[in-house]
Amino acid sequence: MTTFTIHGKVPGTGIGQTKVFGLLVDREFMFSNHREKYKPRVEKRQRKLITQISFIRPFLEPDETILLVTTGHSPPTVLEKLGIGWLFIYLKRSLLIFTDRRIFHVPTTSTYRYRNSITQIPYASCESIQMKRANLVVEYRDGKGTEKFLSLSSREKKKIRELLKIISFEGPQRGVSRRVHLCPQCAKTMYRSISSCRACGLKFKTGAAATWLAILLPGGGYFYLRQPFLGFVTALLEISAVVLIVISAGSLRDGVSPNFLWLGLGVLMLGLIKPFAVVHARVLAGEFVPRPRTVTFQAEAVEM
Q1: Residues 43 and 156 in one domain
Q2: Are 248 and 103 found together in one domain?
Q3: How do residues 64-121 score in pLDDT, each as one tens digit?
């Protein structure tokens, strides 16, 4: 367990702790501003965010205390930066939950609803954690690289800076030296891509299936991975490209001089969109999307 002090006390000792909607929180830290002064608007904001994270209860260790909740965006890949551009502000939204032991990163829908996908960053697995402007930059131990969580809410930005001054990166790493996914059904850590959880048997959507569906069907990979917005946009663009190609090719077949501009545009669109959709679907499958839409946590499967 990582130990540090807040307001001169050690989280987990019961001082300043309370339960909000069934979750153990440090009310003195959570409901105050960055100057350690209680603010009703801060409490209102944090309570609103807590209503979004009721799913986190079974993932918490005994006496693990929630210190702060904020909104932000998951680290985008280079592919996503080039391919979806500004759309990442809708498609990569996430919640960040700071406890006295780790950070939970929760990819969400565009309205910050839980998608049965959750990762953790133990403080002991980090070399450093810094706020750079509105971005949270995490540097992992053992040369495992750096991740950047973008555009954290300005309402918690200053508070996070104060929190990062007092957390300790010492403690047992338990073999974890990077951000890892947790099974949404039993909380077991999953270090690499697998088709089912080895502890509880929960099955996940696979990169292979996402790849084939993206190749065979317009937007198929995205629909398979429950990304309907991306699926709809991709399908519309792919179908439009095919229509341009077919119409231009039909003109050529009928002996009519085709409009090579439209033919070239159709080929270019399809040549760019299809490979991107195929590769991106495989990337998204790495977020361990459960096959069942509804996942019920099974406490008996948890390995403590």
Answers
A1: yes
A2: no
A3: 999 999 999 999 888 777 777 777 777 889 999 999 999 999 999 888 999 999 999 9
CA 16, chain centre distance (Å):
30
Half-sphere exposure of 131 (CA within 13 A, CB side): 17
CB 195 within 8 A of CB 254: no
**Same domain flag for 224 and 160:** no
| 80 in the same domain as 21 | yes
Alpha-carbon gap, residue 282 to 272, rounded angstroms = 16
Q: 148-163 in b/e burial notation, b at 16+ Cβ within 10 A?
A: ebbbbbeebbebbebb
- CA–CA dist 92, 284 (Å, integer): 11
Task: Find how far residue 50's CA is from the centre of its chain.
Answer: 17
Helix orientation angle between 260-285 and 207-216, rounded to the nearest 10 degrees: 160
**pTM metric for this prediction:** 0.86
- Looking at the fold, whether 58 and 102 belong to one and the same domain comes out as yes
Residues 6+ apart with CB under 8 A from 138: 103, 121, 126, 128, 129, 146, 147, 148, 149, 179
What is the tally of structural domains in the chain? 2
Q: Which of 301, 46, 73 is nearest to 156 (CA)?
A: 46
Residues 158 and 212 in one domain: no
- pLDDT tens, residue by residue, 240-264: 999 888 887 776 665 556 567 777 8
125, 251: one domain: no
Could you list the residue range(s) of the whole structural domain that residue 233 is in? 207-285
Backbone angles phi, psi at 140, to 5 degrees: -90, 160
